[in-house]
Amino acid sequence: EKNNEKNNGKNNGKNNEKKNEKNDKGKTAKSSLKKTAASAPSPPPLTSTATPIPRGCVMKVEERKREQCIDLGPLGTKHVFHLKAKNPKEKNSALELYYQVGPVNNVRLRSLLDLLDQVLNEPCYNTLRTKQQLGYSVHCGTRHTHEVLGFCVCIVSARAKPETLDARVERFLREEAWRVVIGLEEGEGQEEKEGEKEGEK
């Protein structure tokens, strides 16, 4: 029993020594941080007067960017808008061909437009980007603008003018895209016929 008491006393003494060492290290670290913070340069004093913004940096309300709604007219009307790049050294051309389809709350139109996006996305990129190499950025997709459904084809090109891009996209939609849509309709009709035959059996 005496030996156990001695051993316990030794262990407790060692533990207390370790705790004291940790406390000493913690105190040393805190004091060094305080010295470092005290020796750091103080920030410049805050002044009550602020530098006023020059008048030339504040745009007038009528000069700020606005969204403009334009009446596109009757069905089949075509509008072409030419916009110059803000950077005068810009060498790239860009085209956005946009078709309005109908109101955004029309569930059937929205579903058909999403389907059109899925079936035309790959052919659009493959024809205009891979084969014809018109631009480094080519994509098509749906648009929801001011509660109106739309479909657009966008190209950014360093080698072709917007007029050329427009002609190529129109040709793609008129020829290849049309064949994709017709093939999809024929495939759906064939599946319906096969379903009817299975029902008769």
TrEMBL record:
The keyword Amino-acid biosynthesis does not apply. The keyword Acetylation does not apply. Residues 115-176 form the Coenzyme PQQ synthesis protein F-like C-terminal lobe domain. Residues 15-27 have a biased composition (Basic and acidic residues). Residues 1-54 are annotated as: Disordered. Pfam families: PqqF-like_C_4 (PF22456). Residues 29-40 have a biased composition (Low complexity). It comes from the Eukaryota. InterPro entries: Metalloenz_LuxS/M16, Peptidase_M16, PqqF-like_C_4. Keywords: Metal-binding. GO terms for molecular function: metal ion binding. PANTHER family: INSULIN-DEGRADING ENZYME-RELATED, NARDILYSIN. This is Coenzyme PQQ synthesis protein F-like C-terminal lobe domain-containing protein. It comes from Polytomella parva.
